Amino acid sequence: EVQLQASGGGLVQTGGYLRLSCAASGFTFDDYAIAWFRRAPGKEREGLSYISFSDGTTHYTDSVRGRATISSDNAKNTVYLQMNSLKPEDTAVYYCAAGGPANPLEYIAALLGATGVFNSWGQGTLVTVSS
């Protein structure tokens, strides 16, 4: 059974940073990628970034490109999302999700909501950015 545990959310001031963690278990990591999504109050779910466990390929959507870094510690089966220069509009519940195997274009399409490659979800962690 795929299990994902997201953590690291909290209250941070504008311009601050957070590192979110996603601890994963229950699947063959080399075949999977982990992605981060968020849902802000009153808005649709939004894909942010993914990382492939097999080759470390990453991708960022426009919302966080240049402000976020996704990384993985394969020994700990954990994926991190470092978010810098946080803004009030980054306030949301952040979720990690697992999916695969797929190619990079499929993972990117899934981040953009076009496919359901990421089909295992953890509970969210709330990030609140104060102005």
Summed up:
The protein has 131 residues and is mostly beta strands.
Give an overview in words.
The mean pLDDT is 94. Strands 2, 4, 5, 6, 9, 10 and 11 form a seven-stranded mixed beta sheet that branches. A four-stranded antiparallel beta sheet has the order 1-3-8-7, with no helix packed on it. The protein contains one helix and eleven strands. With 131 residues, it is mainly β. A hairpin with a 4-residue loop joins β7 (68-73) and β8 (78-83). The longest helix has 8 residues, at 104-111.
Helix content: under 10%
Number of helices: 1
**SSE topology string:** EEEEEEEEEHEE
Q: Could you give the distance between the termini?
A: 40 Å
Please state the structural category: mainly beta
Shape: globular
The low-pLDDT segments are none
Looking at the chains present, what oligomeric state does this protein adopt?
single chain
CA gyration radius, whole angstroms: 14 Å
What's the rounded overall pLDDT mean?
Answer: 94
| Biggest beta-sheet profile | 7 strands, mixed
Strand composition percent: over 45%
Number of strands: 11
Keywords:
131 residues, mainly beta, seven-stranded mixed β-sheet, four-stranded antiparallel β-sheet, 1 helix, 50% strand
